[in-house]
Amino acid sequence: MNSINYKIYLKLLYFAQIVSSQHWSYELQDNWGEDYYQCFGEKQSPITINTDEVIQEYFPAVEFVGYRNVLEKSYFVNNGHSVKLQLEPDEIKPYIFGGKLNGVYELDSLHFHWGHSNNNGSEHRINQIHYPMEMHFVHRNQKYATLDESMSYPDGIAVVAVLCNAVMDRNPKLNILIDHIMHLKKFNSSISVYLPLVLQSLLPTDINKFFTYEGSLTTPPCSESVTWIVFPETVDISHGQLAFFRKLQQMNKKRMVDNFRNLQKLNSRHITLRSLPTRRSTFSFNRRFYPTYTRHKSSRFQIVPIF
Ligand SMILES: [Zn+2]
Predict the structure, then answer these.
(1) How far does residue 270's CA lie from ligand 1's centre (Å)?
(2) How far is the centre of ligand 1, averaged over its atoms, from the C-alpha of 111 (Å)?
(3) Domain residues of the chain, as ranges?
(4) Architecture of 26-276 per CATH?
(5) Is 203 in contact with 63 (CB distance < 8 Å)?
(6) If you write DSSP's letter for every residue of 157-210 in order, what string do you get?
(7) For residues 257 and 116, is the Cβ–Cβ distance under 8 A?
(8) How far does the centroid of ligand 1 lie from the alpha carbon of residue 122, in Å?
(9) Which tens digits make up the pLDDT trace of 83-103?
């Protein structure tokens, strides 16, 4: 194949993938790799996080910047696989950096995975527990121009995963989210954000403790370009609030439930848990961070690391 034909072939392949991206389904997920070869890769997501096997390490926290801003130009859409909050190109975008991330990552969108019952729904599993819902905040490394481009690089994307725990009482922090989602029952329906939505309210209280590992997108094309950040602390959602998600429809008008990928093998990867330093390691951390001084009962000054 000469170079011109090869370029045409690549373009056809690209358009074929766009068309077929509308047609993949969770029911046939074992076959995704036939159309998207990366789905058969060695660094796939989601995975089980066994807390007995994670490596505890201390390193800088992930900084969330602009997560308290009110989103003004974003919109929600039912894309047939999930409900997505998409930030418009001219929106002032929240971003994250720190942790094990290689650069600054700008928020692109937020979407959800959920089950038909409370026994399943989350993609990641912590020990033996599947939660009824998982939120994914998808970020693109700023050094790449588009999300599509960032999928081609191992440091292209960072996804922050928040697991949701079903409870009896309504979580008032999710009210505005639910107010939007109730308008998205039909496939392809969308609605602009019309109430003041602040993303910080969707994160758990403790964002300093998290699991992180190298993985992939959990939908085709399953690009192995994702640094995952998964919080062990969950966010509450009531049974009634979950019901609004379970009323949404797919393209074929079936109920949109169980939109999660099956667990993938860890293979040679390891999962790191960011945790605070032990007393023994405190001294070495103090050498890297400016110390502060606090007076304790002993009336002596003690060096305390800044976190
Ligand atoms: Zn997702």
Answers:
(1) 21
(2) 6
(3) 26-276, 278-307
(4) Roll (3.10)
(5) no
(6) EEEEEEEEEEESS--GGGHHHHHHHTT--STT-EEE--S-EEGGGGS-S--S-E
(7) yes
(8) 9
(9) 999 999 888 999 999 999 999
Q: Ligand 1 centroid to 57 CA: how many Å?
A: 26
pLDDT digits (tens, 9 = 90+) for 48-71: 999 999 999 999 999 999 999 999
Residue carrying structure tokens 């068309």: 19
Token pair for residue 92? Answer: 């002032």
Active site residue 130: no
If we measure between CA atoms, which residue out of 259, 262, 263, 261 comes closest to residue 116?
Answer: 259
Collect all residues with Cβ–Cβ distance below 8 Å to 152 and sequence separation of at least 6: 223, 225
**b or e along 126-151 (b: 16 or more beta carbons within 10 Å of the residue's beta carbon)?**
beeebbbbbbbbbbbbeebeebeebb
Catalytic residue among 81, 130, 136, 139: 81
167 contacts: CB under 8 Å, gap ≥ 6: 236, 237, 238, 239
Confidence category of residue 279, pLDDT binned at 50, 70, 90: low
